[in-house]
Sequence to fold (357 residues):
Amino acid sequence: MMRKLLLFALAIVCSVAAVNSQNAAQQGKRYNVYGVMFYNLENLFDTINSNGTYDLEFSPRGARQWNSDKYYKKLHNMAYAISQMATPATPYGPAVIGVSEVENITVLQDLVRQPELRPWHLQIVHHDSPDRRGIDVAVLYNPRFFTFTGDSTFQRLVVPGNPGFRTRDQWCVSGKLAGENVSIIINHWPSRLGGQERSSYLREAAAAMCRRTVDSLLKADPGRGVIFMGDLNDDPMDVSCAKVLGGKRHIADVTAPGDLYNPFWEKLAKGIGTLAYKGGWNLFDQIMMSQYFTQHYQGKDKPHLTLLRAEVLNREFLRNADGPYKGYPHRTFSGGVFLNGYSDHFPTEIFLTKEAE
Fold:
């Protein structure tokens, strides 16, 4: 009797498997995956003092004794780190990489020529900003997956009552990602110099400018996908991100085309951050997206680019292995000592998926 029951159960399992296999064959659907990453490269400077006092630190005569040996070690480390973000689903790495804390286009050209990245043939979109330290934001992209249409604009932050304030411009780059119209806004908001509360008005002003940019993009083209990323020097629940910019914690709350979903809010709530300070974690390096990328999140079909997942890329090799700062980002310098590390921030990435044509 038992043998008959087992045979009957096996027949049912085989029947169900056959039906499922037939349905899969009928659908015949394949999905591609595309990564969009952000990485603060922590002071990727060349060795030439081209900015007076502010650039002296990163020169051979400066306090860091920033020479060719250290510069090329830094290039190698950053290229290696980016190359290690390839996955089985994205073997050529992220399709688009937003970066901050880069001095000029020359350091980016040196970076993409490194052996670890050269096979990807990364292209560069860069703009010199008025930041007093001379650091910029920029975009690297893989032309296999992203086509830059030549449409890029920058917004310069003007702070009422503080006309002498200078910071990084906000850089908007548009093109086609997997054949779809996408605009990517790269940011590096003002720091917390002077304290979080005293400096928050600067980041709130930056957030308001970003909000206007998002609204303008979607008013001109409601069918466009908008991705917002950067080192915001604020956490997802802070006023600048949650209130002024309007980043939503829960994907169910993204109900209108102009709503922005912030998948990194939940990451921080679980204790996952991108940088550590005095024993606590912050998640300044955020990527948000418009409703375009979330409307099919729960559905079976993904007819256009849809969020698959978001990650803080806190890989083991990017972390300190021991000591009082075990688990923290393994940075380039600490206390003026060259550590030959990577960055004081972990990179972040969102993965988008789409039905293959």
Observations:
- The chain has one domain: 29-355.
